[in-house]
Inverse folding.
C-alpha cells in the first residue's frame, strides 16, 4: 500500500511520519532526504555545478542552505532542480516500496507534482498558519525564507488537498491528540 503524507511546510509532517515510523508495518520514504541524496551523488553534483555554479559545492558536498536560498527565490531555478531530482526520487520510492508494508511517502508537494495519482491513500496534515510560522522561526528560518518556500506550495489550495485526502490531521491539538489520530489512521490502513 502506498500512502502519501503531505502538508505545508511547518505543519508537522515529519512528526506525523515519525509516529507512523514506530509501527513495524510501516516503511517510511522521506522525499526531502532522497532529494538531497539525488543531488549529492557525483552526477547530481555535476548537475549542480553545471546549472547553478561551483559555489554550491563546498568541500565536496552540496551547500544545501545556499542552494535552498537560490532556488526558493527563483522559480525557474527551482523548476530546473526539481526536473533533475524528482524523477530520481520518484524512481527510488517506487523501487524501494515493499508490497508487504504500508509505505508512507512524506512529501510537501505531493499534489503539486501529481504524485497523488499513484497513491492508494493520502494523509494531509494541517496546522494553524501562526503556529506553522512560529515552528519555522524556531527552526532558524527567516520570514523571507518562509514566504519564499510557501509560495511554491499553493498551486493546489488547502481545501482541495483536504477533499482529495482520505485523512486530514489537524496538528494544532497537541502531541497526545496527534498520537491518537495516527493510531486510528494506522488501524484503518491495516483494516482493523
Amino acid at each position: 500500500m502506498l500512502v502519501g503524507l503531505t502538508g505545508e511546510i511547518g505543519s508537522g509532517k515529519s512528526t506525523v511520519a515519525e509516529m507512523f515510523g514506530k509501527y513495524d508495518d510501516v516503511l517510511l520514504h522521506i522525499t526531502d532526504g532522497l532529494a538531497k541524496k539525488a543531488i549529492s551523488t557525483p552526477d547530481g553534483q555535476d548537475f549542480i555545478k553545471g546549472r547553478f555554479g561551483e559555489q554550491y559545492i563546498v568541500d565536496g558536498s552540496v551547500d544545501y542552505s545556499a542552494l535552498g536560498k537560490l532556488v526558493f527565490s527563483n522559480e525557474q531555478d527551482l523548476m530546473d532542480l526539481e526536473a533533475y531530482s524528482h524523477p530520481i526520487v520518484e524512481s527510488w520510492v517506487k523501487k524501494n516500496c515493499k508490497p508487504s508494508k504500508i509505505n508512507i511517502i512524506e512529501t510537501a508537494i505531493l499534489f503539486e507534482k501529481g504524485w497523488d495519482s499513484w497513491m492508494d491513500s493520502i494523509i494531509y496534515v494541517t496546522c494553524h498558519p501562526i503556529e506553522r510560522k512560529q515552528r519555522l522561526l524556531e527552526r532558524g528560518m527567516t520570514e523571507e525564507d518562509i514566504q519564499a518556500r510557501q509560495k511554491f506550495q499553493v498551486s493546489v489550495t488547502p481545501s482541495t488537498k483536504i477533499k482529495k485526502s482520505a485523512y486530514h490531521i489537524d496538528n494544532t491539538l497537541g502531541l497526545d491528540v496527534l498520537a491518537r489520530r495516527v493510531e486510528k489512521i494506522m488501524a484503518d490502513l491495516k483494516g482493523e
